[in-house]
Design a protein that fits this description.
Number of helices: 15
Strand content: 5-15%
Largest sheet: 10 strands, mixed
Radius of gyration: 22 Å
Helix content: 25-40%
Strand order of the largest sheet: 7-6-5-4-3-2-1-8-9-10
Structural class: alpha/beta
Shape: globular
Order of helices and strands: EHEHEHEHHEHEHEHEEEHHHHEEHHH
Length: 428
């Protein structure tokens, strides 16, 4: 463990709570998923040697992340690449450092994995240390294996299901992360019912939207970076073949919601539905893409580089390195504040006047690369899908919001006749 005397002074507290998506092994992964936007980040770190978080970086990060949180909790999120490639001992060291620098705060850990390397040692470790594990699973075999393959192009479904079995065997709390892409987006109920049947009580759906970069990029990355405010394209022809179509995504969410609201409220938690209900009752959505502003969810690379967001790991969005600058100073930097505020200030008039803006807030700025019908840049590629979805769920959401106001559980909606709350059309 690194000596504390070799570390620079501890970071002060940040102005507000923040979150870091931790990349302790950078982009290194044992899979070769066609749609993965992070694999190519290896081109940004070709000369750093190994792309593994070194002991001094790990301790500085753990110490500063805890110290910089203004509240009583610090929630660590370990991701990649594939973090299991680091081995269990790396995370035992991380936990020891968390205990060393806890300062009386409550520390929690979340871990996102493709599940391929999970075994009893991992299961015992996660269970003993109360890790929340996110498992990447795109549906049944023929949909999961459409893009989630290993370095030899072979399917991975069987290995992932074996990993899921390990988590269940050891009683590890887990959720599933399902990317919604060109192949599985047209089979919404098949995907949802599969996830429910394998025991996922908390489901995250992540839409895949990527664009091909121009041939002349200086950094060698082949996926286009998030658009600048003036950067937009008139058509979606630049998106990759695996990107979900807007109409398919809207239908995907609507079909699953209709089944969920009739039988699974309070039993299965779907991130988009939870966030929507929060917005309908005027509470924080809890998901950055559906909040008015962003900027408090950043990313840290294996060498200590801090970026504005997990989806903005590009040189222009590098804020600095925590080995040189206290973490709070990077998180609260003027450039990062402007980044977060731009989510709302850059919304085109078409979005500002939209009846479901309160629920959407333009979604992720990374996806805002189309022109509005008025010719303004900055329209979200998924706009048509989200507008369909949020309009579709308005009546049941208002019903559940009313139940909450009367101290009733939203699950009570399942006892009502469907015709009582499926009326269609937003009335906000």
């Amino acid at each position: 463990m690194t000596s504390a005397t070799s570390l620079r002074p501890t970071s002060p507290k940040a102005k507000a709570p923040f979150h870091l998506m931790t990349k302790p092994i950078g982009s290194r992964c044992n899979l070769d998923c066609s749609y993965c936007f992070y694999l190519e980040k290896e081109k940004l770190y070709t000369d750093t040697g190994g792309r593994r978080m070194q002991p001094e970086v790990l301790e500085t990060y753990v110490r500063d992340y805890i110290a910089a949180q203004p509240g009583p909790e610090a929630s660590f999120a370990w991701q990649g690449g594939e973090p299991t490639l680091l081995g269990v001992e790396f995370f035992r060291t991380a936990l020891a450092l968390q205990r060393k620098h806890a300062q009386g705060k409550t520390i929690t850990n979340a871990f996102q994995t493709n599940g391929v390397l999970l075994d009893d040692e991992w299961g015992e470790f996660f269970a003993a240390n109360q890790f929340l594990v996110g498992l990447s699973l795109d549906g049944p075999a023929h949909l999961h294996d459409a893009y989630r393959v290993d370095k030899g192009g072979k399917p991975t479904f069987g290995q992932v299901m074996a990993g899921l079995k390990v988590l269940k065997k050891h009683g590890v709390e887990f959720n599933t992360l399902t990317t919604v892409h060109r192949k599985n987006s047209t089979s919404p109920l098949e995907v949802y019912r599969f996830l429910r049947e394998v025991g996922s009580g908390y489901i995250q759906f992540i839409p895949i939207v990527e664009r091909n970069a121009p041939d002349h990029t200086n950094d060698g990355l082949w996926l286009a970076p998030p658009p600048d405010h003036e950067d937009a394209v008139a058509l979606d022809t630049q998106v990759t073949p695996w990107s979900v179509r807007p109409a398919d995504y809207g239908n995907f969410l609507c079909r699953i919601f209709d089944e969920w609201v009739q039988r699974d409220v309070g039993k299965v938690f779907v991130q988009q539905f939870d966030a929507a209900l929060a917005n309908w009752v005027g509470e924080p959505a809890g998901v950055c893409i559906f909040t008015e502003q962003c900027g408090r969810g950043l990313a840290i690379e294996h060498n200590g580089d801090i970026f504005s967001c997990d989806h903005y790991v590009y040189p222009r969005y590098r804020l600095g390195n925590l080995m040189d600058t206290p973490l709070a100073d990077l998180v609260d930097a003027p450039a990062q504040q402007a980044f977060g505020e731009a989510k709302s200030t850059s919304l085109p008039r078409f979005c500002r006047e939209c009846p479901v803006r309160f629920a959407c807030h333009g979604e992720c700025p990374k996806h805002r690369f189309l022109h509005t019908p008025h010719g303004e840049p900055g329209l979200n590629y998924l706009c048509a899908g989200y507008k369909k979805f949020f309009t579709h769920i308005d009546s049941p959401m208002r019903t559940m919001a009313a139940m909450l106001s009367m101290q009733q559980a939203p699950a009570a909606i399942m006892q009502l006749p469907r015709a009582q709350w499926i009326k269609g059309g937003s009335k906000r």
